[in-house]
Amino acid sequence: MKLLRHIAFFLILVTQAVCAATPTFGDLAVLLAKGYFGGYVKQDASLEQCAAFLNSRGVSFSLFDLMDPSKGVTQEDLARVVGQSMLLFSGEAEVVNGCIKKPLEAETWVDYCLLNDIDLRPVWNRFVLCTAEDSLPEVRRFFGR
Q1: CA-based angle 132:19:130, to the nearest 5?
Q2: CB 64 within 8 A of CB 32
Q3: What are the C-alpha distances in Å from 141 to residues 6, 26, 77, 94, 98?
Q4: pLDDT by residue (tens digit) across 74-103?
Q5: Are 82 and 72 in contact (CB under 8 A)?
Q6: How far, in Å, CA of 125 to CA of 106, rounded?
Q7: Which of 11, 47, 60, 61 could form a disulfide bond with 99, CB atoms 3.0-4.6 angstroms apart?
Q8: Closest listed residue to residue 53, CA positions, set 34, 66, 70, 71
């Protein structure tokens, strides 16, 4: 009986993992632009407008990442855009070739966030929660869904 419960629990977890939507770079661009930069980006802005706004400020989103609806965002990707955004807001952003450069004192963007007491867990959890059912409407429209 105990074995059956473990198998049932495992199957529920696998089913949830398969059915859950993978947060995409498009979702991240829309949430970041309309959330962090809501004072500068209209709430009815499209995915293209959100990504263009962020890229114009040095918070970089690759066209290849945006165009691949199956490529999921990692916590390292989230750390990069959060770190770039924080540098932009603080006025300390150094833009090189159109992209906000990671400060030298940090080896990675995750390190930058840790060194600056930026807790990514609640941001990541909220991001995953917002995309748990499906991509955001802007992203679905972009891909014609």
Answers
A1: 5
A2: no
A3: 40, 11, 23, 34, 27
A4: 999 999 999 999 999 999 999 999 999 999
A5: no
A6: 24
A7: 60
A8: 34
Q: Is the pLDDT of residue 16 over 60?
A: no
Q: Could you give the CA distance from residue 75 to residue 120 in angstroms, rounded to a whole number?
A: 8
What is the C-alpha R_g of the chain?
17
Confirm if 37 and 54 have CB atoms less than 8 A apart.
yes
Residue type, 5: R
pLDDT digits (tens, 9 = 90+) for 126-141: 999 998 888 899 999 9
What local confidence, expressed as pLDDT, does residue 18 receive? 38
Give the CA distances from residue 37 to residues 34, 85, 105, in Å, rounded to whole numbers and listed in that order.
6, 9, 26
